[in-house]
Queue: 2 jobs
Job 1
Amino acid sequence: MEELDASRIVARQRDFFDSGATRDVGVREKHLKALARAIDGARSRILKAMKEDMGKPGWEAYIAEMGQSLSDLDRAARNVRSWARPRLVATPPYLFPASSWIYPEPLGVSLIIAPWNYPMGLAVAPLVGAVAAGDCAVVKPSEIAPATSAVLAAVLSETFDPAYVKAVEGGPEVARSLLEQRFDCIFYTGSARVGQLVMEAAAKNLTPVTLELGGKCPCIVEPDTDLRHTARRVAWGKFFNAGQTCISPDYLLVNSAAKQELITELAACVRRFYGDDPSKSPDYARMVSDAHFERVKALLDAGEVVTGGETDARSRFIAPTILDRVSPEDQVMQEEIFGPVLPVVEYGELEEAIAFVNERPRPLALYLFTRDRGKQARVLAETSSGGCCINDVMVHFSNSRLPFGGVGMSGFGKYHGRHSFDTFSNLKGVVRKSFLFDAYVRYPPYRNALKWTRKLLRYVF
Ligand code: NAD
């Protein structure tokens, strides 16, 4: 039944795409603006749904999801005409007289599978790229945030003909039946385990995939930094959305000369942010599900609790927690935490911290706090990560001029702003020749062509 629906949905979208309707950049612009209006109009419904799904504080929901989606949509609507225009690039002299162009063309029908932690933002962000690029899209929101999934599906159906963009709600079984269809592009955000399944399914049709995955994002702190500022920024990033953020600083790697003071400052920040009893704070989210609550709670069983540690299963509350004296073998240092628990690992010299990072899978983001430009350059050059912030955490996500995405086990493919447009496009390389001149050396019989070509290639081009 589901399979039949999936094939019909995709077939309708393929017909719509083949009709050429989405080739019109004006149509894309109009729909990007309409989606922005619809999201803005549904503001209170969306914020309420996120509160229901995971107690997301209104400000966090607005800034990280609605505000981000609206600014992505506005920016894409403003720029889609210039992104879609053929781009002139240089032409090597041996092709003279000619010009070379990159012609962006839509890929076709795309599939977007979204996660639960930013259930609206991480569905809309890739969708902006798909619509701007002129693709049709099937969006599969996460079943683990059901209230937001329902509002998002309603907003999309108010804005788009389902043959253009359609949300298909449901869990893994729905995702699987969608993945059995042939798409022209798949954009997946979520865990590496499911990412592998997505890639396997995509391989059958050689469909290009973007995988936005997770991992453990390290946060290195050198003693020359401003520790009060550092603590405030780290605590904000770690406990935002109760740590359920793919680019949350997963663990601290702190120089032993700064460790004690940093821990004291962090504990003070937690009190300032959420009061003496964070379970009463309106600004602190909950674990999204019982399963995630149990998983994160089990991670508390390591090292020494400096602050936090309290839990309440009924409300899926886990207090903002700092763990000192953890060992790399503890479970909390083996898996992505994805919850409000900050383990602290100490190092002596910067090279130890760099080695610690490089011995592990390449992270989605790396954070470094130091005033020393030499150390900044060294860490950038000697480590690899999808993105990086120096002297802050997570904020690189909000600059849509920067490509966002992972590397290695944290995923591949980049998006945001024009990078999203490019991800959902085929960038067709085109050379336009003139009839003014022809280099006869390229045509048989070649005679002395090799001798002349070697000289020309070496000395002229
Ligand atoms: P998940 O893999 O459980 O689910 C993501 C999506 O995949 C959901 O829509 C779900 O329905 C679908 N899905 C689940 N099982 C499936 C299956 N067997 N076949 C096909 N589809 C299936 O991931 P999650 O728990 O929602 O997200 C958490 C992970 O996502 C973390 O690792 C986090 O770091 C990562 N993440 C990455 C980014 C990023 O931008 N790189 C953003 C958010 C989350």
Job 2
Amino acid sequence: MSARPEHAPAPTRLRDYRPPAWRVERVELEFDLGIDATEVAARLHLRRDEAQDAPLQLDGEGLDLLAIALDGRALDAGEYRHDDRSLEVDGARDGSVLETRVRLKPAANTALEGLYLSGSREAGFLLTQCEAEGFRHITFFPDRPDVLARYTVTLRADRARFPVLLAGGNPDGAGELADGRHWARFVDPHPKPSYLFALVAGRLEKLERGYTTADGRAVKLVMWSEANVIDCCHYALDALERAMRWDEQAYGRNYDLEVFHVVATHDFNMGAMENKGLNIFNAKYLLADPDSTTDDEYRAVEAVVAHEYFHNWSGNRVTCRDWFQLSLKEGFTVFREQSFSADMNSAPLKRIEDVALLRRAQFTEDAGPLAHPVRPAEYREINNFYTATVYEKGAELVRMLAGRLGAEGFRRGADRYFARNDGRAATLEDFLAALGEANDIDLAPYLAWYGQAGTPRLKACGEYDATRREYALTLSQHTLATPGQPLKQPLPIPVKLALFDHGGRMLPLHLDDQPPAPERVVVLAAAEQRFVFRDVDAPPVPSLLRGFSAPVILECDYAPDELALLLTHDADGFNRWEAGQQLAARAYDALRDGGDDAAPAAWCAALAALFARDGLDPALLAGLLTPPGELELADRQAEADPARIHALRQALQRRLAEHIGADALHARYRALAAPAGLDLGAAGQAARRLKRRVLELLALVDAGQAFALAAAQYDHATGMTDRLAALAVLVHHQAPQAAAALAHFRARYDDNALALDKWFAVQAQVPGEPALARVRALEADPKFTLKNPNRARALLGSWASGNPSGFHRADGAGYALYAERLAELDALNPQIAARLATAFNGWNRLEPVRREAARQAMAQLAARPALSRNLGEILGNMLKA
Ligand code: B3K
Ligand code: ZN
């Protein structure tokens, strides 16, 4: 069954794209701001496409139309038509000016799309969110990304209630009005699509810094937040400056306005938004201080600040022709962000984190009912397509292209792309064309990656011929069918590889007529291809897909001792981790099936040896000591039982901990405890990361001692990383010390929303049976609310998406409660409801009892009246499986 047809308007299709019949050259907006009612006057300077004979049609939703005039004349009721989605106006011609005046109700806007209130009526502030289609909730407009207009924005409001007035662009005057009101005007010289419009108004404090761009422009960088957290903006301001310098050097991109504003809000549907000149951030990705921010969160703040800044070129100066091209800006910008973070931190660790995320979020998406190509062919609700596929897989595709062209060639191509498409709304074809033409390389074959869903499986088969001293590697690929795409074509797959001898030494590669090199990239361009390496003295161990050179699933019949060899010797930090992951997965299979012990034994022995060895980066060691997560392991069997997967993964880790030994773990913990203070540098972060992993392993073999250490760590922690790590160990093992630590944390952070989110999340992740009761109790907490997306995600999202054994109960009670909450949430905020509903993804590969329970919960939810288009589409697609 699927969502009811009235929730399923005709999909928007890529192949139906037509250029706009009407464009807006200039727009003047005037806002009379108020919390309960805001009035918006718009003057649209229209341009007509003479080749098309279409009436003037504008998007507009939830707008109370107060006045309308064309070319200075008020229109009669018969001269325009207006329903709840659009406005059609008669008599417009090229050069016409349309004026409208509408009324909005910001405080009643719980969807957090368009103009809304963040915080309380008394102290909160007004802000906007327009991507993807929020501008139509503010005024009537052709709300599509290929209509680029010049914006002049005037804000008027009560000065006492709204002392700060901001909009994108350069400041263009401000002053006083009668009755304690004031005004401010902003002019944006760069034509932009409506989704990049933004305003902010309220009581905010600022942190300001001057910056001079490489091309000599003086810019003011300003961070804005509510007064009590303005001191938490220093780190983000530093990160912004680093990102700006990096973009100048790495891509030759300079900032292009007089001022760059960044505003923090606690009420936001996603991470952040790149509005031109006025970025708006979820506080979670902007505010940082050692007392409430973990190391991982510090790195996330740096990454998201950079990401939004980088959009100023990849997204704003060059934008998307239509929303099917979303990955043009998102995939490219994620890639830019990843490269920046790799330069600022440890490159191999960054790659490991990125690939782990890709597998956890994107491979699972690609394997389930929500699978879609990086450039989807159709959608009903575009907000449902801000996915791991568009973002993370999109970034992998750009990485492949960059690898193909080499650093210099890619830079040349990017320069060409920016120069040729500046001020335009572009397509993925434009991107590939610019990269290719700047390098005289035809990249067209890579376009197939954008249109085909599903993760290719790359099979590698090696054969050694002793008499000829040759090693032949046969590579082949196939991709499983995905919804709506039964047939798949071969894709170009770059495979970076090396060969090792059995002593762990790299062998020179003698392939074709190139001079021998220790590492090569071969491109599998067909369904199957054979590569023959000469002058090989003994059967080698191949290290394949180094650095994860393509987003595929590698299937290679390694013997456990070959993986152990790579885990011990591979110089490519990523591939060393990867070998460990493969070996751990094989060990997991063996525990599950009661098979032979070679893989578990090899995994434990190799890791114990690395553990004892000096000189290995502690952060990498922590990564090596972590087996694949429960969601990834779930893909290793036809019918998943999340409780059993959790138990097996714990057993696997216990085996490792026993092999290393409680004494060695304890000794390492002590050694790490001292230097891992508060230092945010790589060394401090690495030490804390390993310390946490060691404590987690110790808890599996000597719980009493581990709990005592965790309690002490909690009590004496100087920063959030150590404090939260200790709390998690206590809570997830239901240690006797957990309750006191939780109570202490709660009291200490009662007024700190971001820290309190962690308090909810850590409890929602208590594994297994107890999770449900915990979630129910936390829902009754006075600080819990569905109205705040961060809080809803912290409790419900952490449980359903981050705690498989706690959510997927055989009795279906988890699904029933979750569906109930999704329905409530949908009435408030459809985007968040739809996003959280994706936790059901993978339901069709659960064991039969859970599968049926999940199906029922979703079907009942889908049958409810008045479901949003957002949630309706997700459930409909999910239930088609
Ligand atoms: N472009 C925004 C995401 C908008 C999401 C709309 N539902 C943030 C980003 O990717 O940078
Ligand atoms: Zn983005």
